[in-house]
Design brief:
With 74 residues, this protein is α+β, with helices and mostly antiparallel strands. Helices cover 46% and strands 26% of the residues. The chain is built from two helices and three strands. The chain has a three-stranded antiparallel sheet with strand order 1-2-3. Strand 2 and strand 3 form a beta hairpin. Helix 1 crosses helix 2. The longest helix has 20 residues.
């Protein structure tokens, strides 16, 4: 289960390489939106998704913790 999760996280990280990022101006840095254009698997149509900086930091933190847990065998 943990190996599968690790492989999924790595696949997502590799799939997101090379995507265009643009940010919209906001007053606070954590409220700033970062919009990413990605192509869905099996489709040539780009899809624009926007997330806040705080949400990205939280997801990155959770992914790093899952990788640490997978390495230690927890």
């Amino acid at each position: 289960m943990k190996k599968t999760l690790l492989l999924i996280v790595i696949a997502i990280a590799l799939a997101s390489c090379g995507n265009k990022k643009t940010d919209q101006v906001s007053q606070k840095s954590d409220d700033k939106l970062i919009c990413t254009t990605k192509k869905k698997m099996g489709s040539n149509m780009p899809v624009k998704t926007c997330r806040s900086v705080a949400a990205q930091k939280e997801e990155r933190k959770n992914n790093q913790q899952e990788i640490r847990d997978a390495r230690t065998g927890n």
